Backbone:
């Protein structure tokens, strides 16, 4: 199987921009949490809330990329003849979700 066939990022421009924008937001939130950790007056629960918000944002980004992968690679696996490989890749990814 040619790895170039399905081992590339097939995101349409709107999806790619959405993921990029969300990641920039996450970066800003992570930087905010780092600043919070430098301030001894910050309440632990406030840090935890921010971390949970970051988790949620990362989950959304993962959903966007996964949906794109399903559309671009999974639905065409039968045509390419790489169903077992695609299934194993997805099982590997999904064990971390």
Residues:
């Amino acid at each position: 199987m040619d790895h170039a066939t399905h081992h590339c990022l097939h995101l349409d421009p709107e999806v790619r921009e959405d993921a990029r924008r969300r990641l920039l937001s996450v970066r800003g939130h992570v930087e905010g949490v780092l600043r919070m950790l430098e301030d001894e007056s910050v309440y632990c629960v406030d840090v935890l809330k921010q971390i949970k918000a970051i988790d949620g944002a990362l989950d959304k980004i993962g959903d966007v990329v996964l949906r794109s992968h399903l559309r671009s690679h999974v639905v065409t696996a039968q045509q390419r003849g790489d169903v077992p490989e695609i299934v194993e890749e997805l099982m590997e990814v999904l064990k971390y979700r």
In short: The first helix runs from residue 3 to 6.
